[in-house]
Amino acid sequence: MIKAKVAAAALGMALLCGVARADGDAARGEAKFQECAACHKLETGVNNVGPSLHGIIGRKAGEVADFRYSPAIKRSGITWTADTLDAFIKEPQALVPANRMPYAGLADPAARADLIAYLQKASK
């Protein structure tokens, strides 16, 4: 019975996170992106310390031309979706150990939802 309650609670939290991500506010996400903009640009082919995030949704990790990715990202097999971005932004080293992104992560699911909503809108 306890296991069922724990599983139900975990499922509920996962669903809430999914709803938050789907309902993220792109305007708040744009403000949050300013923290990312020190390393990432949204323009096609404009790499910085990090790769361009133009067209990130649906792109395989490690495929931006002329950017030197870590071996961990190259072999990750990830395709960037709202879900994979959410997991990566939350804790990059947990999703892809030994990646080179020097970012501790963003714990707040609402802030991640906002950022992903902005990336979905601005990186097309």
Show the helix and strand layout:
Blueprint: H1 2-22, H2 26-36, H3 71-74, H4 82-90, H5 92-95, H6 109-122
Helix pairs in contact: 1-6, 2-6, 4-6
Description:
There is one protein chain. By secondary structure, the protein is mostly helical. Helices cover about 50% and strands about 0% of the residues. Helix 1 (about 1-20) runs parallel beside helix 6 and helix 2 (about 25-35) packs across helix 6. The longest helix has 21 residues, at about 1-20. The protein is globular. Residues about 1-20 have low confidence and may be disordered.
CATH architectural designation: Orthogonal Bundle
What's the helix-strand series? Answer: HHHHHH
| Silhouette | globular
Q: How many discrete domains?
A: 1
Global Rg = 15 Å
Helix content: 40-55%
